[in-house]
Amino acid sequence: MKNLLAIGVIFLMGFIGFAQVNPVEDFKPSETNQPGREYPKVNSEGRVRASISAPEAQKVQLDIGGVQYEMTKNTNGFWVGESAPQDEGFHYYQLNVDGALVPDPGTKYYYGAGRWGSGIEIPASDSEKFELKDVPHGTVSEKLYFSNITQAWRRCFVYTPPDYGKADGTRYPVLYLQHGSFEDQTGWASQGKANLTLDNLIASKKAVPMIIVMDNGYAYRPEDVNKGGRPPSAFEEVLVNEVIPMIDEAYRTKSDRENRAIAGLSMGANQTMRILMNHLDKFAFYGGFSGTSNYPKSDKIDTKTFLNGAFDDGNAIDEKIKVFWLGLGTKEPDPFPESVGAFRQMLNDQDIQHVYYESDGTAHEWLTWRRSLYEYAQLLFKN
Amino acid sequence: MKNLLAIGVIFLMGFIGFAQVNPVEDFKPSETNQPGREYPKVNSEGRVRASISAPEAQKVQLDIGGVQYEMTKNTNGFWVGESAPQDEGFHYYQLNVDGALVPDPGTKYYYGAGRWGSGIEIPASDSEKFELKDVPHGTVSEKLYFSNITQAWRRCFVYTPPDYGKADGTRYPVLYLQHGSFEDQTGWASQGKANLTLDNLIASKKAVPMIIVMDNGYAYRPEDVNKGGRPPSAFEEVLVNEVIPMIDEAYRTKSDRENRAIAGLSMGANQTMRILMNHLDKFAFYGGFSGTSNYPKSDKIDTKTFLNGAFDDGNAIDEKIKVFWLGLGTKEPDPFPESVGAFRQMLNDQDIQHVYYESDGTAHEWLTWRRSLYEYAQLLFKN
Fold it and tell me: Degrees (nearest 5) of the Cα angle A48, B112, A121?
C-alpha cells in the first residue's frame, strides 16, 4: 500500500511536472523582441517565457491567450514565468504587474485587440511562406489623404511590387485588403506580413505582381458621430468614392473590375463582402478570411432578403465573380465556423462556385490570415 | 510670534502648492496618445499628467526628463500624477510600477533611448512647421535590402516628394538624414516629422522637392562582431557603397555631388561629418544637428591631425561645401555646447563659411532636430 501510494505520488508529480512545471529547456529569444532583448523567449513546445525586473512587486502575471500565468520572483528582483504551449503563429499578450496591465518592455509593439501592445511569434511549420528571403522586395508606403466624407486626415499603406520602381510604364492590378475589428491599417504589413508574402509569391511566380492597398476600416461621418451612440460606418463610401480614385490616380494601376480584388479578415471580410456585392462593377475577386456578411448568425440564409437579395440570382453572381474565396482556421471559436458554414451552404444552394480553405491548427488569429492571403493571392488576376 | 509662524506656514504651503501641487487645470489628451485614450494629458504649462489602473501596486511613478514623480492612488485603483513643466517638444518617458519600468499603455510607442517605449508631445509654439496640413503630401516607404558588408537584411525609409508618383521623368536631389545614438531609422519620419516638415516646406516653396533617405546608423561586419568588444562601425561603407548606389538605381535621383546632401543628429552628425569629409566627391551639403566629429572633446582643434587633416585646407573646403550647417538647442547639456563651440572656432579660424542656428528653449531632443531640419532643408540644392 505504501509503495502504491509512493508510485501514485511520483506519477502525479511527473504528470504535473510535465504539464506545468518542466518546460523543454530550448527557449530562444522571440523574433518579435526589441533589438538586443533576451526575453521573452519561446521554446519548441510553443511556450512563452517572459521576464521583467519588478523588485517591489507583489504579483506579476503573463497574460496570453486569455489565460494568466503566475510568474515568480528571483533573488535579483526579476520575475520569470512560462505559459502553456500556444498555437503556432502570432499572438497579442501583456503583463500584469500588481494589477497594471502593461506591454512587455521586451517586445516590439503591434496594433490589435484595440491597443498598441506586445506581440509574440510562435514559429510556424510553414513560416517560410512569410519569411524575409533573398528575393526582390517590393516597398510599403504610407499615404496620407484628407477624406471629405469623414472630414479628417486618414492614412493607408500601399504595397508596390519589386519592379514598380522601374517606372517602365507597366500597370498593375490592385488588391484592397482589410483588417479586422479592434485592428487598423498597420496590421497587414506588420504582423500580417502581406508584403513579404507577396514578395515570395511573386519571386516564385506563384502570384502575379500586384499593388495592395491597406486602409483603415473605421470611418464615420462627423454628423453621425455627433448624434451619439454607435454611428453607421462610412467606410464603403470612403473606399469606393475616395480611396480607389486616389489610388488609380497616384499609382500605375489597371483600373477595370477584372484587375481589382477585395478581401478582408473577420470584420473586414464582412465589410468587403458588402462592398463587393454593392459594387460588382468594380471588383471581380473576393476573399473572406474568417468572416462573412451573415456574421454572427448561423441560421440558413434567405437569399430573398440577405444583403437585399444580392445573392438571389446565383448564376449571375457566379458569372461575375471570378474567384470567390473563403478561409477559416480549424480552431476558430463559435460562431465563426457555424456562420461561415451557413454562408457556404447558401453558396452551394445557389450554385455559386467558391474556394474554401482551412488553416490547420490555428484560431481567429494572424497565422490563419497570413495563410489565407498566401493561398488567395495565387488565384488573383490570372483569368 | 504665533501669527508670524502661521503666516510662514501659509506662505510655505502656498509656495509648495504653486510649485508642485496645483497645476493649471487645462489638461488635454496628448496628441501622441493611442486612439481613444484619455491619458496621458498635457496642460498649458507643459506638465504631463499620467494615469494607470494598478489596484494592487504599492508605488507608481511617472518617469520623465530624468525625474521620477510620485503618483497617487484613487479609490478606484487608478494612479494619477503630474510632472513639473517640460520643455516644449517631444520627450521619451516611462512609468514605474513597483519597480517595473514599463511603457505607458496610453501612448503610442517610439524608438529612442535604446527601446521602443512611450513618447509625449508638449505642443511647441512653432508646431505649425511640422503639422499635418492641407497641402500635397509625399510618401514614406520602407525599403528592405541585403547588405553584403554586414551580411544581414537592413531597411531604410525613403521620403519621396508629393509629385514623385506622377512618374513624369523628373529627377530629384537626395538628402541622407541620420538619427542619433540609441535611436534608429524609424525616428525621423515618426517623432522627427521629417515628411510633414518637407511637405510643408515644398508646398510653400521654401524648399525644393527632394528625396530623403533615412537609414540605420548602426552597421557592423560579422567578423568584427565575433571578435567581441565594441566593433568598429561599418556604416560609412554601407552608406557609400551599398545604399547610395541602390537609391540611385531604384529612384529617379540626380546623382551628382551638387544634388546630394548629408545630415545627422548627435551621433549621426558625428558620423555624417566623417562620411562627408571622406567623400567630398559625393556630397556638397552638410548638416550637423547637435553634434560634430570632435565630440565629446571641447579642446581647440588641431587641423593638422583632426579627421586626418581634412579641414586643414580651409579654402578648398569652403569652395567644395556649398552649405555647411550647424544647429544646437539653447538648453543642451555639456559637452554639446562646448564641443560644437570648439568646432565652430576651428571653422572660423580656417575661414570656412557656415550657418549656425540655435533652437530656443530646447535641449538634446527632437524639437531641436525638427527645427534644424526645417531651417537646413530650405538651404539645400538652390545654388
Answer: 20
Query: Chain A interface, mutation test: which of B116, B160, B183, most A Cβ atoms within 10 Å?
Result: B116
Rounded to whole angstroms, the Cα distance separating A84 from A21 reads 10
Report the gap between the CA of A95 and the closest CA in chain B (Å): 10
Is B194 in CB contact (< 8 Å) with chain A? Answer: no
Q: Does domain B24-123 have CATH number 3.30.190.20?
A: no
A145 part of contact set with chain B, CB < 8 Å? yes
Residues 80..109 of A with a Cβ closer than 8 Å to B: which?
95, 97-103, 105, 108-109
What span, in angstroms and rounded, lies between the C-alpha atoms of A132 and B142? Answer: 14
Lookup: cell for B175: 538628402
Name the band, by pLDDT with cuts 50, 70 and 90, for residue B10. Answer: very low
Q: CATH 2.60.40.10 spans which residues of chain A?
A: 24-123
Residue in the block written with cell 500565468: A69
| A202-239 core/surface letters (b: 16 or more CB in 10 A; e: else) | beeeebbbbbbbbbbbbbbbeeeeeeeeeeebbbbbbb
B301/A190 Cα distance (integer angstroms):
47
Indicate if the pLDDT at residue A46 is higher than 70. Answer: yes
Residues 6+ apart with CB under 8 A from B299: B342
b or e along A299-332 (b: 16 or more beta carbons within 10 Å of the residue's beta carbon)? eebebeebbeebbeebeebbebbbbbbbbbbeeb
Give CA angle at A78 (B106, B107), nearest 5°. Answer: 10
Pick the more confident residue, B18 or B159. B159
CATH superfamily placement of domain A128-377: Alpha/Beta hydrolase fold, catalytic domain (3.40.50.1820)
Smallest Cβ–Cβ distance between B167 and the set A102, A105, A252 belongs to A252
* Contact between residue B217 and residue B267 where contact means Cβ atoms under 8 Å apart: yes
Neighbours of A66 (CB within 10 A): 5
Q: Buried b / exposed e across B126-164, counting CB within 10 Å, b at 16+? A: ebebbbeeeeebbbbbbbbbebebbeeebbbbbbbbbeb
- Confidence at A167, pLDDT banded by 50, 70, 90: confident
